[in-house]
Amino acid sequence: MVKAKRLRVRTSALEKFNSILINSFLVFTVLITLYPFVWVLSMSISDPGEVIRGRVWLFPEGFSLRSYELLLHDKNVWISLYNTVWYAVVGTALNIVMTITFAYPLSRKDFFLRSPLMLFTAIPMFFSGGLIPLFLLVISLGLYNTQWAIVIPAAMASWNVIITRVFFQSNIPEALADSAKMDGASDIGFLWKVVLPLSGPIIAVLVVFNFVGFWNTFFNALIFLSSSNLQPLQVLLQKVLINHTVNFSMPMTKGVETMMLGMQMRYAIIIFSVAPILLFYPFLQKYFAKGYMIGAIKE
């Protein structure tokens, strides 16, 4: 009896120690993850003189929104933002339509091309044609330097098709389709009136996956878009950060002020480009985990 009591005390103490250790590690992880965001935000709203002197370590030194004022008055920023929103909205909508209309037939056991199409869907997950064939294909289709060069090559992804197919198989029973056909519903009518209303979770997963992906699109835009009027916000951010060029119109007379604000505007445009997705992501983060769980279920 005494030994069992001592064992429970030791177990309880070990659990408390493990809990403290895990919580400390999680807090440390949160702090080192948040630090870059807090630092960039502080750099963007601090006094430009303090920024160029390198005195900002965590919290703002002084306060100035001059960099944001100049940023919001530049037409190139708004053009890039419009392009990013267009790619995210149109690309997400097209990808959802293509994915659902392709994945639903693959989820039906009576579809005679089910196995061959699933094989062709899985192959691109392991083998890719490469960048040069894709570039030549985009040029041959007349998509180069057009908005569709970003949207059409990403209109469907194998992973999205697979998790959508698994969702349909797990949540849309065959008996429901049979009863709808007995009532005179066509396959398209069943998909539109029955399947889609029951597919809210997987649609939310696809929206999150695709919207975040299109919002952060950079490499394809850099390769397929030569006109600055078509390039998204991430390419503009690359030009500012990597090439160290700030082409925003700054109506100032002092060269020192121009240099200080040019330095600070690099941080302001980072906040400007990531703020929308940071506000959007936390509300739909749970759907990422749900999407991976859907893809993990096999029948």
Q: What features would you describe in this structure?
A:
Helix content is 74%, strand content 0%. By secondary structure, it is mostly helical. It folds into two domains: 1-64, no CATH class; 65-299, Orthogonal Bundle (MetI-like fold), CATH 1.10.3720. It is globular, with a radius of gyration of 26 Å. The mean pLDDT is 81.
Descriptive labels:
single chain, 299 residues, mainly alpha, MetI-like fold, 2 domains, globular
Brief description of this entry?
With 299 residues, this protein is mainly α. The protein has 14 helices and no strands. It is globular and about 75 Å long.
Proportion of beta-strand residues: under 5%
The biggest sheet, with number of strands, parallel, antiparallel or mixed sense and barrel status, is:
none
Q: What do the pLDDT scores average to? A: 81
- Based on the structure, what is the oligomeric state of the protein chains? single chain
CATH topology of the largest domain: MetI-like fold
User: How much helix is in the residues?
Assistant: over 70%
Number of helices: 14
Distance linking N and C termini: 49 Å
Structural class: mainly alpha
Q: What is the 3D form? A: globular
Q: Kindly provide the name of the CATH class of the largest domain.
A: Mainly Alpha
- Overall tally of domains: 2
CATH architecture assignment name of the largest domain: Orthogonal Bundle
Instruction: Name the poorly predicted regions.
Output: none
How many E strands? 0
Q: Please write the string of helix (H) and strand (E) elements.
A: HHHHHHHHHHHHHH
CATH homology-level superfamily of the largest domain: MetI-like
Rg, rounded, reads: 26 Å
